[in-house]
Each structure stands twice: as structure tokens, then as C-alpha cells.
Amino acid sequence: MQKKLLENDHIRLRAVEPDDADIIYDWENNTDNWQVSNTLVPFSHHTIRKYAESASQDIFENRQLRLMILDKKQGKAVGAIDLFDYDPFHQRAGVGILINNQEDRGRGYATQAIELVKGYVFNYLHLKQLYCNIGSDNEKSLRLFKKLGFEVCGIKKDWLRTFTGWIDEYTLQCLNNEL
């Protein structure tokens, strides 16, 4: 039996559907997420609905791809994982992840989603590397990505402004050693 590329026994990654507009609207407008997503202003429901209805999911055309993270047992979306700045010439892309609800964090969703995306981009899209940018105060994300083979390759000093001052931002990368 062939292994499915974007799912395992516990989660499935799927394209954004029009029915996801309400949940994406809630996630994007949750101000607790704004610092890690670099969001400055709220999104309108109209804008999110248009996005969800027209998301073509063509990474080659859009240079980005958002996938919803579904808990297969519960049948609900628990988060999203994004590929962005896709560069087919240099064979790289950025990755970002959100598990929105506090009660869903620490349950392995992010680990599994990143592992699935790594398999997808390295074995199917044949990328050489994934990278991510993480604020120095986001210790959980730093531990998560390091656990999954990402290494710190750079630091941007006083890069992010927070309510309490400036913090550094780390750039981490994971290389596909098969290429």
C-alpha cells in the first residue's frame, strides 16, 4: 500500500476550502497570534472569504501554499502550515505554522505537520532547503524546529518590535542532504 504524502495516522494536511473562511478569519484576527505572524491590522471577513473561495493552491504560480491541519479522529481543523517565498530556481521555501487553540498545542500536531511538509517538499517538490524565522522569545518554536532538524544559521539583532521592546529573530534552515 502506497503511503499518502500529506497525511499520517493522526493528521491530514489539505488545501484551503471555502468553508474554512470563518475559522481562518478567527485565526488571522486573533491578536495573540499577531506578533509571530507580523500582522499589523485586522482582516475583514470579506477579504478572508474571497481568499478562501479563490485559493488556487498552485505553489508554482503563487509562490506560496497554505494547508489546513486536520485532526483525523476529531475531524476538525486545528491549525495551518504555510509554505512561502517558494523559489524553484534556488529550490527553497519558508515554512510557518500555527496551532491556534492553547488546548491543541503540545499534542504533536505541529511536529507531525512539519514532518509531513518536509517529506512533501524534499521528496515531491525536490527542494534543497526549508527555512523559518523565529523570534528569540519563542522558545517552544525554537525547540520544535531544532528537534526536527532545523539549525540556526543566522540572527537578526533587534529585528522585531514587541510591546516590551526589541527582540532578535533567528533564521533556521533544514537542508535536504539527498540533493
UniProtKB/TrEMBL annotation:
Pfam families on file: Acetyltransf_3 (PF13302)
Listed transmembrane segments: none
Molecular function per GO: diamine N-acetyltransferase activity
Boundaries of every N-acetyltransferase domain copy: 11-173
EC number per UniProt: 2.3.1.57
Organism superkingdom: Bacteria
Enzyme class, spelled out: transferase
Record's keyword terms, sorted: Acyltransferase, Transferase
UniProt KW Lipid metabolism keyword: no
PANTHER family with a match to the protein in the record: GNAT-FAMILY ACETYLTRANSFERASE, SPERMIDINE N(1)-ACETYLTRANSFERASE
Name of the protein described by the UniProt record: Spermidine N(1)-acetyltransferase
